[in-house]
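seq:
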Amino acid sequence: MNLRLKFILYLVITHVLFGLIAIYLIRQRSLWLFAFEAIFVISLGIGIKLVSDLFGTLELINTGAQFIHDGDFTARLVEVGQPEMDHLVNIYNRMIDHLREERTRAQEQNYFLDKLLSASPAGILTLDFDGQVALANPSSKQLLQLPDANLLGQKLSESSSPFLNELHALNVGESKVIPWIGRRRVKCQKSHFLDRGFPRHFVLMEELTEELRQTEKSAYEKLIRLMSHEVNNTVGAANSLLHSCLHYSDQVKVEDRHDFETAINVVITRTNQLGAFMKGFAEVVKLPEPKFQPCNLQQMLADLAHLYKAEAAQRQIEIVWDVQSPLSEIDADRVQMEQVFLNLLKNALEAIDERGRITLRTGKQNGREFVMIEDTGCGLSPEVREHLFTPFFSTKEHGQGIGLTMVQEILDAHHFDFALESEPEQPTRFTIWFQ
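struct:
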């Protein structure tokens, strides 16, 4: 039973009693009836006025509550001239002004955060209370290269992407550099914030590929210059002395002369090979600026693949084409791009023992032309993939570890994006995207 009904019942019962008393007075003392009727009318009027005032106050309170419920913080109540009511009106108006200011401030902060997230060069993923991706800013989408359907509303732990799985494994406050698509490296950090009193997680992602590459490049350039200087000086002086020694071969006994000359020539050969070995490293450091001119890269790749045709046939390796769309002429340095394709084809052949296949694929992806060299080798372990573009790192017994380093330098100088994808026992794909 609500308060309004209680007041009405009270008035009804009270004035019914007044009516019974009035009937009694009519029978006993009729003169008192007129006085009592006057009291009755006055009491009823006062009761109605009090009820009206009371429920007017409640109605005003309900109106204010409805405004708050509807989120309308612009409507203010007007004073009615009653002290108690005006006090409530003033309290309500101050409260609604405060709420309006807080909402305006929150909207401005949300607007600022939205702009900040959109403009941020760092990728940001915000998770909801269930650990699902609730928000991904443009930088994170560009970095991850995943459609919204495979990102928003998905749990990091249930994603098919190893990169997202590693993000899930991060502890709150932990920072880690995670490999992503070939040579790319991303610094990731997980943190949290409070939302309605409960913690929600978010992940910051900053690509460090270029910074790490420049740091590595500066380090190995300095190392190569030092090594090259010392080795060339030593080789030059040693070869000069060794050739001088050959002039004294006539003074050696006849029976020992052949062994003497052979030994000296072997040492000369080895020092020359050491010089050539260092020259290969120096070429990476002294790589000239590319000379751009229109090139038919598809024909170039076909011609270079033809060079390896005999070796591939001997090892029963098939070289096939998958031309989804032919490459158009592209401005590039022909000599340097030949070095790129030669290194990639050589690596693909060496990755296959025998009875394999190398696929040369061309086409368009996201509006950009690409060429992909795919081999059916045994794939690469995560540890090897992490160091593939590191200078001097090689999985081959006599490898120098400069092939992919040179490929990286040439493609970066051309501003061509590239990626190496490989999993154990899976095909290895090297893809180059052109502007």
